[in-house]
Design brief:
single chain, 494 residues, alpha+beta, Thrombin, subunit H, Pdz3 Domain, 4 domains, 7-stranded antiparallel beta sheet, 6-stranded antiparallel beta barrel, 10 helices
Length: 494
């Protein structure tokens, strides 16, 4: 729909009509237009006979490295002895009791499929990148068993090396050598309009390639990864459907530039708005997971917002580039360094900050303990501050001994207002909140981030000392609060 106001009359060629300037209408005189509105008359050059009619040579090297990922849950069930149908009919007719099942019968293990997705082999020795949501259920519980199927028919059972919910990245490993793999390209070099291909296993129909372009870069604030997620998506119109998650987004040279993750759709199917995690971000997460099984993120300790023209004018700032510091948390790096509410961060560690999300992503990509220079504007003056970043999972670790690992790979902290907001904890819940669980922790299936340990072996715990005193060797019962409900968990300490 085109709705414009007409303020001038020009000839069909786009040039000004001097006669129109002196003409009158019912509402007054026409205004003479000074612009020429030139029209390009040169047609598209069709003389180039070296037209690209196929990318098959590029994709021949891509498709073998994209795999199907099939997660499963292992459940234990008791079937009991199945009676003869004739015997059961006679039993009902004569009113005889049904024989009791053998309570000592060993439960039978069954494998329940948990969905399907895709993955990308990124090294010949079997490392695979995929999405965290491909290997997890709606509650965030990871699959018990994962099967990986190659396009050549081979199948492997994969080990979970690590997974990261805030970026929706997971790393798998299969025991194999000389596997086909994809090269990774710097996704920061992508431009809108670049040709890309989405490769995966949509709707389980088999390996499928779709073609499109980069529609946008740096997409954030979509809520796809939740409030605490780190969104910096590549947007593409290459067709992405359920099952494509975890698959490859490759450039015209067959290099991996993204991991296909999500779509926006009213119908659940592709409408040309798909999103992929940039491989530069995915690679950084992968390296951390392979190295330690978890992801450590730096913390500055500020609450920030985007600048609007009105805010910029009010703060005497030129333009809207930068991140406005809304508040500074006492005792954390920004406060300790002298950063104040009302400052406008324009650069950190040599990276220019255009919007608030740039600052959040940049800080989160740095390791705790990293010294970094923060450049900001205050009252129209440029200032620099040297800051040593804290740990997002353990913010006061550099200054406090109140938090740490009570159980192997599990970081606990006293509940603060910050964690009440972050994990939506009601005020009545007291105890130690789980702020990090290492992907290689033996307790990963029973303890999760955001869970509160209220009691250990019937002893209330408010600090690490009390929790350590309540632990014992062997089986320990934990009274916990998790996502709105209380319940018992059992963990074993050797």
């Amino acid at each position: 729909m085109l709705a414009v106001g007409l303020y001038a009359l020009t000839s069909i060629t786009g040039k000004n009509d001097d006669r129109a300037a002196s003409s009158e209408s019912g509402s007054g005189q026409y205004i003479k237009v000074s612009a020429d509105f030139p029209l390009e008359t040169q047609p598209v050059n069709r003389e180039n006979k070296n037209k690209i009619v196929s990318f098959s040579d590029v994709l021949d090297d891509v498709t073998p490295a994209v795999v199907g990922v099939y997660p499963s849950r292992i459940v234990k069930v008791r079937d009991g002895r199945r009676s003869n149908p004739l015997e059961e009919m006679l039993r009902r007719y004569y009113g005889l009791p049904t024989p009791r099942q053998n309570d000592g019968e060993e439960p039978e293990e069954r494998k329940l499929p948990q969905g399907m997705g895709s993955g990308v082999i990124i090294s010949s020795d079997g490392y695979i990148l995929t999405n965290n949501h491909v290997i997890s259920d709606d509650r965030g519980n990871v699959a018990d068993e994962i099967e990986v199927r190659l396009n050549d028919g081979r199948q492997f059972t994969a080990e979970i090396v690590g997974h990261d919910e805030p970026t929706d990245i997971a790393v798998l490993k299969v025991a194999a050598e000389d596997l086909p793999s994809l090269k990774m390209a710097d996704s920061d070099n992508l431009h809108v309009g670049d040709i890309v291909f989405a490769v995966g296993n949509p709707l389980s129909v088999g390996l499928t390639v779709t073609m499109g372009i980069v529609s946008a870069t740096g997409r954030s604030g979509l809520g796809i990864l939740g409030q605490e997620g780190y969104e910096n998506f590549i947007q593409t119109d290459a067709s992405i459907n359920p099952g494509n998650s975890g698959g490859a987004l490759v450039d015209a040279e067959g290099r991996l530039v993204g991991i296909n993750t999500a779509i926006i759709s009213r119908t659940g199917g592709n409408i040309g708005i798909g999103f992929a995690i940039p491989i530069t971000l995915g690679r950084n997460i992968m390296l951390s997971l392979v190295d330690s099984g978890t992801v450590q993120r730096g913390l500055l300790g500020v609450r920030i917002a985007n600048l609007t023209p009105e805010l910029s004018e009010a703060f005497g700032h030129t333009g809207t580039s930068g991140a406005l510091v809304q508040s500074v948390e006492e005792g954390l790096p920004a406060s300790n360094a002298g950063i104040q509410r009302g400052d406008i961060v324009v650069d950190i560690g040599g990276r220019k900050i255009e919007v608030a999300n740039d600052l959040r992503l940049t800080v989160a990509s740095m390791q705790p303990g990293t010294p970094v220079t923060v450049t900001l504007m205050r009252d129209g003056k440029k200032l620099e501050f040297e800051v040593i970043l804290s740990d997002m999972k353990n913010p006061y670790s550099l200054t406090s001994g109140d938090s740490g690992e009570l159980l192997e790979g599990v970081v606990l902290e006293p509940i603060s207002s910050r964690y009440q907001d972050e994990y939506k904890l009601p005020g009545r819940v007291e105890g130690l909140v789980v702020t990090d669980v290492n992907g290689r922790s033996p307790h990963i299936r029973s303890i999760r981030e955001g869970m509160v340990i209220v009691e250990i072996n019937d002893h209330p715990v408010r600090d690490l000392a009390a929790a350590a005193a309540a632990l014992r060797k062997g089986a320990n019962k934990l009274w916990t609060y998790d996502r709105g409900s209380f319940g018992y968990q059992v963990i074993r300490v050797d």
